[in-house]
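> example.struct
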């Protein structure tokens, strides 16, 4: 009986030594994350790839109130007219837009156009914030109308350039203006689709307008729900997504792929294209990480750590992703995202463990 107990103890000690042997050489941070997350691993049924990024939720009723207020102000500007000082500000903004839209403009030309805007701001604001808000609402309505005209015709009007500068170029560079998504038109030409909805168009316009005029205060700044709508769009359609994979150079660290590309051939081209596509995806996730932090600074209710974990996982930074998911669970042990964060954590820990063997 005593010999059997000794044998069991020896077997147990060998098992413990064997378990420790697998931890030898692990980075201390990874060990800490793995041990801290072990309870979650046991508690959830299976790992789930972090494929779904949490998006901010804007209050539709709050957005509708903002849009109604802008519509009312635009109609008042049309019905009542605008003071001469306010009209001068509007003309200065349009002149700035034309210079900004001209790819050949010089820095001196842009600075001169901006100086005219700044000179007009003070006299316009002297007429009251509401008078200037009516100007902005009137120009916003015209801007949205011209964007829809661009969508319908494919041509950017002078008025769109006046009010949006190089916004048509931004649409194309960002892949926010696409061809062929809505079928064929009656004349046989392919339809165009602007991915930006009316709410986001409004927020983008207001932010640019405020930056040009130099006003960053209430009641001119977008509401929190407007910001949420904008960030939801930017997280779904990152600006860097417009950078075609074909336009990105192959990562210089991959010398073997570079040699393949120089050698030519379909296989080489495919390998280089795959590398460029992968780098484009990484650029998107780095952009998302930046926007996640910006959104969380505006909206403390947004699950920042959960979102960061998803982006980091997509970047292949599995240990950092696990730390982010663990942090989310520490801050929110119960909530709408708890089970999702636990499953994501398990997936990140398992991927981090695989990298060590």
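> example.seq
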């Amino acid at each position: 009986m005593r010999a059997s107990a000794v044998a069991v103890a020896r077997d147990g000690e060998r098992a413990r030594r064997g378990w420790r042997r697998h931890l030898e050489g692990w980075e201390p941070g990874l060990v800490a994350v793995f041990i801290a997350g072990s309870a979650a691993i046991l508690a959830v049924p299976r790992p789930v790839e972090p494929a779904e990024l949490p998006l901010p939720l804007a209050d539709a009723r709050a957005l509708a109130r903002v849009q109604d207020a802008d519509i009312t102000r635009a109609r008042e500007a049309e019905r009542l007219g605008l003071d001469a000082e306010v009209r001068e500000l509007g003309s200065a903004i349009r002149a700035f837009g034309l210079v900004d839209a001209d790819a050949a403009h010089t820095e001196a030309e842009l600075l001169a156009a901006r100086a005219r805007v700044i000179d007009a701001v003070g006299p316009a604001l002297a007429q009251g914030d509401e008078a200037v808000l009516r100007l902005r609402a009137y120009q916003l309505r015209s801007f949205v109308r011209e964007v829809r005209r661009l969508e319908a015709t494919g041509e950017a009007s002078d008025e769109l350039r006046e009010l949006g500068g190089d916004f048509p170029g931004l649409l194309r560079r960002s892949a926010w203006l696409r061809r062929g998504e809505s079928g064929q038109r009656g004349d046989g030409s392919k339809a165009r689709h602007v991915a930006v909805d009316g709410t986001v168009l409004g927020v983008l316009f207001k932010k640019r307008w405020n930056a040009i005029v130099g006003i960053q205060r209430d009641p001119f700044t977008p509401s929190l729900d407007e910001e949420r709508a904008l960030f939801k769009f930017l997280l779904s359609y990152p600006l860097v997504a417009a950078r075609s994979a074909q336009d990105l150079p192959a990562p210089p660290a991959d010398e073997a792929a570079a040699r393949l590309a120089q050698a030519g051939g379909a296989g080489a081209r495919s390998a280089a294209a795959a590398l460029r596509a992968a780098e484009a995806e990484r650029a998107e996730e780095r952009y998302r990480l930046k926007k996640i932090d910006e959104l969380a600074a505006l909206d403390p209710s947004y699950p920042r750590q959960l979102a960061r974990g998803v982006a980091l996982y997509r970047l292949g930074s599995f240990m950092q992703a696990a730390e982010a998911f663990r942090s989310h669970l520490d801050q929110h042990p119960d909530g709408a995202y708890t089970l999702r964060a636990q499953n994501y954590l398990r997936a990140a820990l398992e991927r981090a463990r695989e990298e060590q063997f």
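> remarks
Residues 86 and 132 are 6 Å apart (CA to CA).
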